[in-house]
Design goal:
binds magnesium ion, single chain, 4-stranded antiparallel beta sheet, alpha/beta, Rossmann fold, binds adenosine-5'-triphosphate
């Protein structure tokens, strides 16, 4: 991996929507088989960071290295094919399609393409995804709109796995889920890490971040104001009060 053991390395990226300057020089590193959490309140730039990595809103300055290769200038489909998948905010599954159709349709063309990366990482197909999420297996012929919020989230994650990504970008998977389902999401993320996947998770939910993160960055108005372990963050009252807030404490 070109002299670096980081799966993903972001170097001082600056991202805009037109004249609106949103990400003010972010840098981060993520290694194979790790979970990095970006924690921040509404509108701080979490989704914009994911959009920057995925090539949807490319940064105007800075570099993003994936497996040692720069993603700058590459179109989103090429970035996806290089081995990353997004679980988007609000889940975005096809409501009128069945669970089976949701899993088979959108990303199946990418499945199995990925040959390089961590050799120990689990390779997924429909059968192994259903074994991981038995609840989905029971609902294969139900349409998306008949699923609970938690099942929709599992489907969104299952769909991402169909592309066999080495890196999974997750945008607020706990949003709108009851605490018990948030625990289920935690469990799923730990299992994915055990299977050798790397996860970049953006969240507002402090408890979820603390429970799964190998490393946490706190984002505020497009800048990282903290980087450390869950234990270090939980001892930093100033950052928690100023930049994480009560909304994250449920
Ligand atoms: N398409 C867009 N055009 C212009 N400004 C945008 C666009 N999308 C987001 N923004 C602005 O960029 C900033 C960061 O937004 P972003 O969606 O990245 O925040 P977020 O941390 O994901 O918030 P949330 O937790 O609510 O999802 C906000 O000020 C937002 O209004
Ligand atoms: Mg967002």
């Amino acid at each position: 991996m070109a002299g670096s053991d980081h799966l993903l390395a972001i170097r001082d990226i600056h991202t805009y929507y037109g004249d609106s300057y949103v990400l003010h020089g972010l840098s981060l590193e993520l290694s194979q088989g790790r979970i990095v959490v970006i924690l921040g309140r509404n509108g701080m730039g979490k989704t914009t960071l994911i959009r920057s990595i995925a090539g949807l809103t490319p940064p105007r300055r800075g570099d993003i290295l994936f497996e040692g290769h720069s993603l700058i200038g590459k179109p989103p489909y090429e970035i996806a094919q290089s081995g990353m998948a997004i679980v988007p905010q609000g889940r975005r599954i096809f409501q009128s399609l069945t669970v089976r159709e949701n899993l088979m349709l959108p990303t199946s063309a990418l499945a199995g393409r990925r040959k390089s990366g961590n050799p120990d990482r689990k390779r997924w197909d429909l059968a192994s995804i259903l074994a991981e999420f038995p609840q989905l297996a029971e609902r294969m012929d139900n349409t998306g709109n008949a699923l609970s919020g938690g099942e929709q989230q599992m489907l969104a994650i299952g769909r991402a796995l169909m592309a066999n990504p080495s890196l999974i970008l997750m945008d607020e998977p706990s949003e709108g889920l009851a605490p018990k389902l948030v625990q289920k999401i935690e469990e799923i993320m730990r299992n994915l890490r055990n299977h050798g996947h790397a996860i970049l998770l953006v969240e507002q939910n402090l408890a979820l971040a603390l429970s799964v993160a190998d490393s946490i960055y706190v984002i505020s108005s497009g800048r990282f104001v903290f980087h450390g372990t869950a234990e270090e963050l939980s001892r930093n009252a100033e950052i928690l009060d100023s930049h994480v807030g009560v909304a994250a404490a449920h």
